[in-house]
Amino acid sequence: MIEELRTAQANGLLSNDTLSMLEGAIEVSELQVSDVMVPRAQMVSVSVDAALAEILDIALSSGHSRFPAHGEDKDDILGVLLAKDLLQCFVVGAPACDIRALVRPVILIPESKRLNILLKDFRQSRNHMAIVVDEYGGVAGLITIEDVLEQIVGEIDDEHDDDDPAEQLHIQAQADGAYLVSALTPIADFNDHLGSNFGDDEFDTVGGLVTSEIGHLPESGEEAVIGQFNFQVTKADDRRVHQFCVRINEA
User: Fold this and answer.
1) Domains in the chain: how many in total?
2) What is the mean pLDDT of the chain?
3) In this model, does residue 137 exceed pLDDT 90?
4) Which of 55-64, 87-96, 192-201 has the lowest mean pLDDT?
């Protein structure tokens, strides 16, 4: 089917944009939730027991409109908190705000769910976010309707997205001997370029490796030393790390 569409495009029957969208619509049926979800380590969530000021700060700094709401930890997901629902907490004369009462239900889905099926579920339930659980029932990450649609129509930019084309170059050598490394660099590629031997059984990308080492979603400027490599976060937002400056420490 895709080859036929490409032939039609080559013959001038389809535009490049139309071809890309049709290819995305076909390929989305072959992708699973685990292929595009936001991993647990990169989730921006809120605790229902946190102070209102803390939750508001997370909402304002992240720019997101929805947040997984949890109890004791991220495995105790209670639902989803909408930023707009926080507005009622600031109405003059309103009673004390009960964050738990503002939490809305959220759907739980397995990592293996197909994206085309999930898109139908989103449309039918009118939900925009789902929590992804692993085979043991633990939280593996989250996925939004935007994540699914981007597989069809391409990147959906907003004011919080970083569209720096330099990030597409996974490893860039610098004049001072350092390397700018995209967080999406596969660990195998990093090993090949820099002579490291990091395992990729648990993490696929450099971003996942460093985030795990630091223990939380890193902010710009944070550093981690793993083996002989010093990783400094140079680009990050509220959803994920984008880029590191990597220096090799002399033995």
Assistant:
1) 3
2) 80
3) no
4) 87-96
**Do residue 119 and residue 85 come from a single domain?**
yes
What is the token pair recorded at 200? 């990729």
Judge whether 165 lies within some domain.
Answer: no
- Residue 235 CB: number of other CB atoms within 10 A? 18
Q: Is residue 120 part of a domain?
A: yes
* pLDDT band of 12, cuts 50, 70, 90: low
- Domain coverage including residue 205: 171-248
Quote the pTM value: 0.55
CA 22 to chain centre: 24
Residues forming a β-bridge with 230: 225, 247
Give the separation between CA 184 and CA 201, rounded to whole angstroms.
16
How crowded is residue 55: how many other Cβ atoms within 10 Å of its Cβ? 22
In a domain, 202, yes or no: yes
Q: Which residues of 128-150 are buried (b: 16+ CB within 10 A; e: fewer)?
A: ebbbbbeeeeebbbbbbbebbbb
Single-letter amino acid code for the residue at 159? E
Torsion of CA 48, 53, 58, 61, to 10 degrees: 170
Q: What does the block give as tokens for 144?
A: 């939004």
